[in-house]
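A quick aside before the break. I want you to see a complete sequence-to-structure record at least once, exactly as it would be stored in a machine-readable document. Don't worry about memorizing anything.
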Amino acid sequence: MNVLVYEHACGGGFAEGAVSPGILAEGFGMLRSCVAGLKLAGHEVTVVAAEELVLHNFPVEADCIVPIFSFKDAQQAILKACSSVDAVYVIAPETGGVLSELVRFVEQQGVPLLNSCPEAIRAVSDKVGLYKMLKSKGLRTPKTVEVSVAQYRDAGFMDCFGFPVVFKPVDGVGCSGLSLVDEPSQVVGAVGRVVNELGSEMFMVQEYLVGEHVSVSLLCTESKSVAVSLNRQNVVLLGPDGVSCYMGGSVPFYSEKMSEVFKVAGAVVGCFSGLRGYVGVDLVLTDAGPVVVDVNPRLTTSFVGLSRVTGFNFASAILDAALRNVLPSNVAFLGYSCFSKIETPKVDMDVLYELCKMSEMVSPPFPIVDSKKGCALLSVEGVSYEEACCRLEDVKGRVLDLCREV
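That is the input. The structure line, written in tokens, reads:
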């Protein structure tokens, strides 16, 4: 097949200058891993990417790379490509309806998609509605209150909680706009972070959950799903003066609660019709059991590690699930992958070229005009989790040594 893969951070987001180094690293990592898997399966792949990014030693082995200068250009490139490709895969955030609108746009061109349908994307992207749906099905979610930015001072919402609590936008992905609030004096700053980062008029206050942050990667057809992997997440939660962030994780993650977590994740996707291909479910493993925190109707960064250690071609399996209603019959792992973002100094083209030679370098620290720092995404494999972790620390050191030579 000829497949168009559009990743928003590398395409319209970068072209508009509205992407952070960390988000770009994750986005490029998913794009590169997806393209590599589809190529290995024998498919031809077309990619849309910002021209400035393409000029920075863009290490993607696509058959065709279409350079664009703006998000409008990206939409036109997608429209033109739809006349000659057999399928499209959109990798984009749900924030502001970006993912659902792009999927709807492609759907209107009559081209098969590897994505969930727009209605399902919108349903799980509505965080308040998501929690209500899951709660009605007997699934545990964090205690949550939705609050208006304009009226939060008089809302009395903290009467439902004790500190610490989590402030987060109702429409967002990852840790964007998120703050851990330990005391009343931090409330104003936490609300300000929601507004400044996402321009949201509403936000949520949630109980702080003590436990292990994990995710489940699932493959879904129209009628069934299979949980492929339990993944460990490295999530840093900070107050409004800091920057909460997702730094990476490891796959697979084995837990005595794994069968229960897989059952919960399967029940979650079963609540929504139209979820197809790859779906991620974020949870916290508490002493009382797994609590569902989020549902991602799209590719997630865990795919970067999974694509390296699953005993099948994961990108090809996404295509099979979405287009052919076929799920893998046997899930096995060839080892462990630890993957992590790492902040670097801003590097020049010579150093960028050397970094791209590293097999562990999934996403090099592309320079962004308005940022003084870069961000790389690494993935390191080992026969054990401990070996992968040790090797990752070694690779981080080598990367920083190279960057310091600037």
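Two observations worth writing down. DSSP finds 13 helices and 16 strands in the chain. Residues 21-40 form the longest helix (20 residues). We'll return to this after the break.
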